[in-house]
Write a structure and sequence with these properties.
The complex is a heterodimer of chains A (379) and B (302).
Chain A lengths: L1 H20 L10 H4 L34 E3 L12 E3 L1 H8 L38 H17 L22 H4 L14 E4 L7 E4 L1 H6 L5 H4 L6 H4 L3 H6 L3 H5 L16 E2 L8 H5 L12 H4 L14 H4 L14 E3 L8 H4 L25 E3 L8
Antiparallel strand pairs in A: 1-2, 3-4, 4-5, 6-7
Chain B lengths: L1 H23 L15 E6 L8 H9 L29 E5 L9 E5 L8 H5 L5 E3 L5 E3 L9 H5 L6 E2 L9 E2 L5 H5 L5 H5 L5 E5 H14 L19 E4 L17 H13 L3 H29 L1
Parallel strand pairs in B: 1-9
Antiparallel strand pairs in B: 1-8, 2-3, 4-5, 6-7
Helix pairs in contact in B: 1-8, 1-9
The chains are: A mainly alpha (379), B alpha+beta (302).
Chain lengths: 379, 302
């Protein structure tokens, strides 16, 4: 008997260790505490945190990957007044591309297989756990938030066919043909020019591509609360006209101080894109071209801290820890024994000063060594 | 001297009266109230309700009341006027403007709250109303004598009377679909609600779920569950983004509504106070009159 138990235990240990080796893709970057209140959740007491959770891992998938049309008929046995909805999934996925992405509706959207509503929301309205809506409620809540915002209408026949005998199906109803439609691909602009009533500084040039590629912003950073009505509102032009100054600047003021420094965006002529050298005097093109902004500008929103001082990121440089060859100049024997600050008195280690030792020499006329062939940057 | 004694008498009488009332104020409410621990309730989330009014249709259909076809309930023009539950509609939805987002008006379903300590049960002199173990407050047509005390007593002004019926008019109010729920079905309004703005469950679970929602979405809700404590607690409860008083809910204390009326009634009638007080008063009047006559005759004599 004892041996049997030992063998059984041995297999158990094997099984556990085998499980540990391979983490399922949906669990990457997650700890138990992401989803469970208890550190040791068990099958009987899962102690699952109520949704939405603080650290939700969310993955966006291209709209084309999802199904084109979904017939929502999971509740067809419960209701007999209305027919199941034919939901144009592809169309909605394309529309969501600019707002919240997949997680607009799939609010629990971890890596791996996309999770549908019925995985978490119970189909039975009479149930034990009333902390989250049932499936019927969950479906409708997802739809109604946007559809109410779109036109304020709540009538069921906008999406459903009435299932009452003698009722003629409404062929004019857009809900019946919407499944075949495709939303045009949303093209991100390179830059946009806004005419504003501001004087002087009528023109605001917004470099969209730069914000995406250079500043590495996600679509949702700016287009966070946008749904269909952003473009399709019935009174779009009126609502734009009646916006307050604060509302107009709302998107920008998430990152920019729009109460001051109007001139940084407003100008009479179109502005060129962001050039680090032009704005700050510090050229990034030679040594820092591949470095992301937040590598140096660690403190969020505060970009003025570094003051062109190399030591802020690199620490104190000496002859030992800095290969001078990188700059394009191999120092000669005499100069290679000097301290860095003997020649580079500026904290940005720009132009060397020869005058503290030499009366008759100046840079770049005289070079304290050999050129490697690469052209020197002005910094 | 005589004036003085009359004043004394009145003072004493007033004191005695107050003392008796004070003593009797501890008398408990009359009808026995069975409050099952597992009594059911409903939680209405007014931030979720879309005002589709399908609950109104379902309610009428379930209670075999006259109703128009379901499509007609999509008409939102009824929201122009504030409505109350009547003998023709046991539940109605009203709409209120949302100050934060005008696209999302606040819709509030109104019906009987099914109090834990119902004033209608207490006020009914023939016991036609009763609080059931499943939480519903129901009316028994066989007992009712049509006195309509329940209508006056209800703090939410819910019971309605069929005034247009000359013979055998009924009191009409939401019965929490008592007939359906005893058969294991959901209340009709709860079953049809497309967004599950009405959650059905044990009152205990619902209170927990409501507070969890408030904690999770502090910007969405005000920190109050209407019906948790109002008039001693109700089976139907509400969550809202706006103060309930602005949504036409009456401002009510935490004490059960019957407590007030019953304390007064039972207080007055306890220990034979009214007859004793009446005879004391009459005796006092006689005594004063007698003294007065004596005094008058004495004065004449002098």
């Amino acid at each position: 008997m004892k041996t049997r138990i030992f063998i059984l235990m041995f297999f158990c240990v094997l099984a556990i260790s085998a499980q540990n080796k391979k983490t399922p893709p949906s669990m990457v970057g997650l700890t138990c505490k992401n989803c469970h209140t208890s550190a040791v959740p068990t099958k009987d007491k899962p102690a699952v945190k109520p949704c939405p959770r603080d650290n939700m891992v969310s993955v966006d998938q291209p709209a084309g990957k999802g199904p084109e049309v979904v017939t929502i008929d999971k509740l067809k046995n419960q209701t007999n007044v209305y027919s199941p909805v034919v939901f144009a999934h592809r169309l909605h996925a394309e529309m969501s591309g600019m707002s919240g992405g997949c997680k607009t509706c799939h609010h629990y959207n971890p890596q791996g297989q996309v999770i549908g509503c019925s995985e978490c929301h119970e189909a039975n309205r009479k149930r034990e756990d009333v902390s989250k809506p049932d499936l019927n409620g969950a479906y409708h809540r997802q739809c109604m938030d946007c559809h109410r915002a779109l036109n304020g209408k709540t009538s069921c026949v906008q999406c459903h066919q009435l299932n009452i005998s003698g009722h003629q199906p409404d062929t004019q109803n857009p809900a019946m043909s919407i499944g075949k439609k495709v939303h045009p691909v949303i093209v991100a602009p390179t830059s946009l020019k806004f005419d504003t009533p501001q004087a002087p500084g009528k023109l605001v040039t917004f470099h969209h591509e730069e914000h995406v590629k250079l500043f590495k912003l996600e679509c949702q950073n700016c287009h966070s609360n946008e749904n269909c009505i952003k473009c399709h509102a019935e009174n779009k032009i009126e609502s734009i006209k009646t916006r307050t100054t604060e509302q107009r600047h709302a998107v920008c003021s998430n990152c920019h101080n729009t109460k001051e420094n109007c001139g940084s965006c407003h100008a009479d002529k179109p502005k060129t894109g962001f050039d680090h050298k032009e704005y700050t005097g510090f050229d990034l093109t030679r040594f820092h071209s591949k470095v992301t902004c937040n590598r140096c500008h660690v403190e969020k929103g505060n970009f003025g801290l570094l003051k062109k001082e190399c030591a802020n990121c690199h620490g104190v440089w000496t002859q030992d820890n800095f290969p001078h060859k990188k700059t394009g100049v191999v120092l000669d024997e005499i100069h290679s024994t000097l301290g860095c600050t003997d020649c580079h008195q500026e904290k940005d280690y720009s132009k060397p000063a020869c005058t503290s030792c030499h009366d008759d020499k100046s840079y770049p006329k005289n070079i304290p060594g050999k050129l490697t062939g690469k052209t020197l940057s002005k910094n | 001297m005589a004036n003085q004694s009359r004043r004394d008498f009145l003072k004493t009488a007033a004191l005695a009266g107050a003392a008796v009332t004070g003593l009797s104020s501890k008398v408990k409410a009359g009808p026995k109230n069975i409050l099952s621990e597992n009594r059911m309730g409903a939680l209405i989330d007014t931030t979720v309700c879309i005002g589709c009014r399908k609950c109104e249709w379902a309610c009428k259909t379930a209670h075999a009341m006259e109703t128009q076809s379901i499509e007609t309930y999509d008409d939102r023009s009824v929201f122009k006027n504030s409505r109350r539950p009547t003998d023709k509609a046991l539940t109605v939805v009203n709409e209120y403007p949302n100050d934060i987002s005008e696209n999302f008006p606040i819709d509030v379903k109104v019906q009987c709250m099914h109090c834990d300590h119902p004033a209608c049960v207490s006020a009914c002199i023939v016991g036609a109303f009763s609080k059931q173990e499943n939480g519903s407050v129901v009316w028994d047509g066989d007992k009712c004598i049509g006195c309509r005390y329940c209508m006056v007593a209800c703090p939410f002004q819910i019971p309605a009377f069929e005034f247009d019926k000359a013979l055998k008019p009924d009191i009409k109010k939401c019965d929490f679909c008592n007939e359906r729920t005893t058969k294991g079905k959901l209340p009709a309004c709860t079953e049809i609600c497309p967004v599950e703005a009405i959650t059905y469950g044990t009152r205990e679970d619902l209170v927990k779920a409501a507070h969890q929602k408030i904690k999770l979405y502090p910007n969405r809700y005000i920190d109050r569950v209407l019906g948790e404590y109002e008039v001693g607690g109700t089976s139907w409860m509400y969550l809202s983004s706006k103060e309930f008083e602005k949504l036409d809910f009456p401002k009510l204390g935490k004490d059960p509504a019957p407590g007030v009326s019953e304390t007064i009634q039972h207080g007055i009638f306890a220990y034979f106070v009214p007859p004793v007080a009446l005879y004391a008063l009459l005796g006092g009047v006689m005594w004063i009159n007698k003294n007065k006559k004596k005094h008058d005759s004495g004065a004449e004599g002098e």
